[in-house]
Amino acid sequence: MMSTSLTMTVAVVAAAGISLAAPASGQETAGQELGTVHFATSCNEVAQRRFDRAMRYQHSFWYQASREIFEEALKADPECAIAYWGIGLSFLNNPFSPPPTPNLPLGLAAINQGKALGAKTPRENDLINALAAFYTDYDKVDHRTRVQAYAKAMEQVSNRHARDDEAQIFYALALNIAASPADKTYANQLKAAAILQEIFKRQPHHPGVAHYLIHTYDYPPIAEKGLDAANRYAQIAPAAAHARHMPSHIFTRVGSWKQSIASNISAASAAKVNKELDDQLHAMDYMVYAYLQLGQDDKARVVIDEMQTVTGFNPKLIAGPYALSASAARYMIERGDWKGAAQLQVRPSEFANIDAITHFARALGAARSGQPETAKAEIAKLAELRERLRQEKNAYWAEQVDIQGQVAAAWLLYAEGKYKDALKVMEAAADAEDKTEKHVITPGAPKPARELYGVMLLDRGMAEDALLAFEATLKKEPNRLGAFLDAARAAEKLGDVSKAGEYYTMVVEMAAGAEPVRAEVAKARAFVAKAR
Q1: How many helices (H) and strands (E) does the chain have?
Q2: Other CB atoms closer than 10 Å to residue 462's CB: what's the count?
Q3: Which one, of 86, 65, 57, lies nearest residue 19 by Cα?
Q4: How far apart are CA 416 and CA 374, in angstroms?
Q5: Are 122 and 106 within 8 A, CB to CB?
Q6: In whole angstroms, what is the distance from residue 360 CA to residue 379 CA?
Q7: What tens digit of pLDDT does each residue of 140-174 get?
Q8: Are 171 and 19 contacting, i.e. CB atoms less than 8 angstroms apart?
């Protein structure tokens, strides 16, 4: 009977066009370089070995490979019900974003098969039932609500199996993905971190613990706590492109741009070899962001040009399409190339929030380069995309697009000479953005709203308020080149030569390898040279 069930699962997967081909580089070789995981099961010895191997891939979000190996575990032991749980996990992809819509019925089918078969231990049945909360009524209940239901179910699993590390690890992960972006106490994240840190002491080579600690600390006030995990994860699981990339989440948060670049060069290379093209583009977007913070615009441009040649990524996953749109937008906005921003071409995607990135760049560029009618049309498009996201019950991205619309509207008002109204709208946008968190898919906004608010204040001669805005930006997002440059300009306007010198010196040090340089960087170099 179970042979038929396995065939049905494979058939469902094939019908969705999802490959079960063996991962590049070979499972056995890569499996030895993915860390150490033992997830005890009631399956036979062969299936147990395969299950542990699958979990090493799964903990580094190598979903396609883990899914195939879970299937192999079922072939070795058709009664291995927990393998269906593993298949269900693999269909979530990166759980910090909604799974691709075609994956939802597949994941539910796997979980239902696991439930129908029934596991031989309460722990395995508890895990299967908990994951069912993520998939049940996926066509009726929004993603956020199902995530909360899953977190509650995993809390019960955690309580019932308090001495089981894997149960605790997945509870910690559930806490993190269920955390509210508006909770600035980071209650869920810190609770998850406390769980994971204790396990890390016992299992220092566990890939999932290092990985999830990085996600747990991927927030400005607590990012430095993640440096240990960031420095260790790539060494624990060097075969995984994702493991090479994830440290850059922390490096980005603390402004360690050279480390971020090194991580992502390595990650993009590994992802390219393994044909993990979504991961390759994701790493390259982080690389572009970091190069721009060092003023190395020419290197950022080379990466973007290479990104345009990458084909074959999954358009139903957010990572690839997001990277392509965001990197192009941030290249124009970070450099203040407003005409270039206004001329960006929209790459239509299946995601309203991704399309919004380019429309935002076009709106901001048009407003700041004397094209008010174009700006109005782009702002109207942002409003349309925001409403689409609201209808999709995607509250987080609807809010982010709404903030983009506010920023663009503020600069349009400014271009029309309505300075008081512009400052009011811009301040509200900055306040709104500060109350939320960036999504894990991105190293950051093309330019923080608070930083753009400071630019507007400085342009109106309000240098003292502008300096406060730039310094607030730097507190939240350390070592941003644009914020340093603008803070130096504001200090200069205030006659604070000492502070201006401090900020210009930071610019010169950060952009030491930048050739050719932006005009603002050249000015910083001249200022520092004159002061010596």
Answers
A1: 28, 0
A2: 17
A3: 65
A4: 13
A5: no
A6: 7
A7: 999 999 999 999 999 999 999 999 999 999 999 99
A8: no
Q: Which residue type does 371 have? A: Q
CA distances from 429 to 43, 346, 406 (A): 54, 24, 6
- Ranges of residues in the chain whose predicted pLDDT is under 70: 1-32
Instruction: Supply the pLDDT for residue 32.
Output: 66
Q: What angle do CA 73, 77, 80 make, to 5 degrees?
A: 80
Angle at Cα 130 formed by Cα 86 and Cα 3, nearest 5°? 40
Element (H, E) at 185: none
Long-range contacts for 231-237 (Cβ within 8 Å, ≥24 apart)?
232/204, 233/207, 234/263, 234/266, 236/35, 236/205, 236/206, 236/207, 236/210, 237/33, 237/34, 237/35, 237/56, 237/59, 237/60, 237/207, 237/210, 237/211
Please report how the helices 352-367 and 395-415 are oriented relative to each other, as an axis angle in degrees rounded to 10.
10
Per-residue pLDDT tens for 211-250? 999 999 999 999 999 999 999 999 999 999 999 999 999 9
CB atoms under 10 Å from CB of 35, counted, come to 27
Same fold, 2-178 and 450-532: yes
Q: Which two tokens stand for residue 162?
A: 């308090």
* Secondary structure element (H or E) that encloses residue 225, with its range: none
Q: What is the full DSSP assignment across 406-459?
A: HHHHHHHHHHTT-HHHHHHHHHHHHHHHHTS---TT-SS-SS-HHHHHHHHHHH
Please answer whether residues 207 and 244 qualify as being in contact, where contact means their C-beta atoms are separated by less than 8 angstroms.
no
Q: What is the DSSP string of 249-277?
A: HHHHHHT-HHHHHHHHHHHHHHHHHTT-H
**Amino acid type, 120:** K
Percent above pLDDT 90 for the chain: 93
Spatial contact of 470 and 253, defined as CB atoms under 8 Å apart:
no
CB 430 within 8 A of CB 465: no
From the list 230, 161, 169, the residue with the least C-alpha distance to 194 is: 169
CATH code, residues 2-178: 1.25.40.10
Give this prediction's pTM.
0.91
Domain ranges of the chain: 2-178, 335-447, 450-532
| Cα–Cα distance measured from residue 452 to residue 234, given in angstroms and rounded to the nearest whole number | 35
From the list 196, 221, 268, 234, the residue with the least C-alpha distance to 478 is 221
State phi, psi for 366 to the nearest 5 degrees.
-65, -40
What the block records as the tokens of 515 is 């050739």
For residue 272, count CB atoms less than 10 angstroms from its CB and return exposed for 0-12, middle for 13-18, buried for 19 or more. Answer: middle
Q: What is the pLDDT of residues 170-185, one digit of tens each?
A: 999 999 999 999 999 9
CATH class label, 450-532: mainly alpha
Contacts of 353 (CB under 8 A, 6+ apart): 385, 389, 394, 397, 400, 401
